[in-house]
Specification:
Order of helices and strands: HHHHHHEEEHHEEEEEHEEH
Strand order of the largest sheet: 8-7-6-5-9-10
Low-confidence stretches: none
Number of helices: 10
Helix content: 25-40%
Number of strands: 10
Distance between the termini: 35 Å
Largest sheet: 6 strands, antiparallel
Radius of gyration: 20 Å
Mean pLDDT: 91
Structural class: alpha+beta
Shape: globular
Strand content: 15-25%
Length: 305
């Protein structure tokens, strides 16, 4: 019997991976239980079987949290428009990236009157972002097509990240920012475990498909955590001048949450909030070393959930 299920699982994984079977894939996953879906998706993405009875690694514990930690506040955290109200009430509106507009559908976006630079984000998914650095070079029809497709997608069905299930899809437009470099905006992703910031990822060289990731502890000592498919800046990343304030902000926003990643930006003279991420990589991050997955996992105590 177990052999039969293994063969069936392998066939389903091939369907999930095949982009030409998108409609079948979309309909298929709706019939799967949350636990079955996350297990098959985990195997498809990582090549490993998911152990939910005794989760040990970071990825396994993130999958466990998806299934068992259903704090209703999380629905507000993952909504990129609703979270602005939470951030404003918790740490202050001055940490929010200036909002240019919010739109219920793609055709409502006034491209002709938008500034020359801006960022469009879908509020209900992960990755639905359009960064415009020069409106004259923006392919508006292609942009609309991307956003139309994104607005039709319910992120929950593919990842079983339950807080996304009932978000009302919208598009928000925010001001385009750059940091002290003058040409990019490094992303400081602060992983907080049980309310305490422990590990900081710095994303740089974002124009490349395989952007750089450097890891630091809160004293800005470099951690040698490697992710497959991503290099690191060999020169390291300079300690941000507002690091202590960034850590303080993270503690406030992460209070009472077993795991959350607080994404922040630093410009020349200010800190800005990016988003709250409960399930990085949907719990399928590819680490170069299993020890790194286990190290991060050791900081999540599921007995406290």
């Amino acid at each position: 019997m177990s052999n039969m299920w293994n063969k069936l699982g392998k066939k389903l994984i091939k369907i999930v991976r095949n982009p030409q079977l998108f409609i079948l894939r979309t309909n298929l996953v709706r019939f799967l239980s949350d636990e079955t879906c996350v297990a098959w998706r985990y195997k498809s993405k990582t090549g490993n079987y998911l152990d939910l009875s005794n989760p040990n690694t970071f990825n396994e514990k993130i999958q466990w949290l998806k299934l068992h930690d259903h704090n209703p506040e999380y629905q507000k955290f993952v909504d990129k428009y609703a979270v602005r109200e939470y951030v404003s009430a918790t740490i202050g509106s001055h940490y929010l990236i200036p909002l240019i507009g919010v739109y219920n559908d793609v055709e409502s976006i006034p491209f002709q009157t938008l500034p020359n630079t801006f960022v469009l984000k879908c509020t209900h998914d992960s990755g639905g972002v359009i960064v415009c650095k020069d409106k004259e070079k923006l392919d508006i029809p292609a942009t609309k097509k991307i956003l139309h497709r994104a607005l039709k997608k319910n992120f929950y069905w593919h990842t079983r990240e339950w807080p996304y299930k009932n978000i009302e899809p919208k598009v928000i437009c925010e001001k385009y920012l750059v940091d002290e470099s003058g040409y990019e905006l490094k992303d400081y992703k602060i992983s907080c475990f049980h309310g305490e910031p422990r590990v900081i990822q710095v994303m740089s060289n974002r124009k490349a498909s395989t952007y750089n990731i450097n890891h630091y502890d809160t004293a800005w000592n470099e951690l040698h955590i490697e992710r497959k498919g991503h290099g690191s800046n060999p020169l390291g990343i300079e300690k941000p001048k507002h690091l202590e304030k960034m850590l303080e902000i993270s503690r406030v926003l992460a209070k009472g949450i077993p795991y959350v990643r607080v994404d922040l930006y630093q410009t020349e003279d200010a800190i800005y909030f990016g988003e709250l991420t409960l399930y990085p990589g949907s719990g399928c991050l590819l680490f170069a070393q299993t020890a790194d997955d286990e190290y991060l996992g050791s900081m999540i105590n599921l007995s406290q959930v």
